[in-house]
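Sample entry (283 residues):
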Amino acid sequence: MKRSSTRWLVAAGLILAAIPSLAGAQRAPGGLRELSPPANVLPKQLETVDVEEHLGEMLPLDVKLKDHTGKDVLLGDYFQSGRPVIVNLVYYGCPMLCGLVLNGVAKTIGELQYLPGKEFEVVTVSIDPKETTDLAAKKRDTILELANRTDFGTGWNFHTAEEGEVQRLADALGFKYHWVEKEQTWAHPAAIFVASPEGKISRYLYGIEFPASNLKLALLDASKGKVGSTIDKLLLFCYHFDDDSKEYVLFAQRLMRYGGALTLVCLGAFLFINWRRSSLRKS
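Predicted structure, serialized as tokens:
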């Protein structure tokens, strides 16, 4: 298990979310009271917010969810099509961070040649057990409208769940979050998760923006090349995921090895053709 910290991104989201309450701060004798910790100090409410990677582990496919239409479903229902699945945990009443993550996902999906419901599925689940189906449906409509896409169809579904069910899913993903009573908000990381068609966690992507090339390769990786064209599969062969940068990078060593072999084959073919032509002329 590998841990990748996203706490400072979460901190930025919480600070932005708390701006309305900060605006009403009172002056204390001798000047303004300190409202936030120094820049290099992590707020206490974020100390337990993180993502602990569980790559290769199975998701609990029996987690019970309710989709944006009010239908009771299981997480495993989205793994019946043989397609990879993007999973993300948010809450629909989030004042800042969740909206940025969802907008980032929608924007990136809009740049892909693949479509949810055709090459992959997207499953969004609220971490707030008090949120309703109506709220899930409204958030879905808002995100798809902002994405200006009408062809996502049934491939991107928004859900609510009981506390125990969403906690099981979060634990399996290594997604650590908690309720902050003072701010009346959920402290949580910014990440999305890509799972294989069998339900194994394949890739973690962090932040609020997801380069289309990264998501495309993550889907190819999760599907073991079953999604995409022959050229896409060749791209996957030439790239690998770098754990430090959390991005797909060109696999230079592999490219040089096979590129060199291809060069030798081409050179050999060229020499053979010239030799044959020369032999035919002489005869």
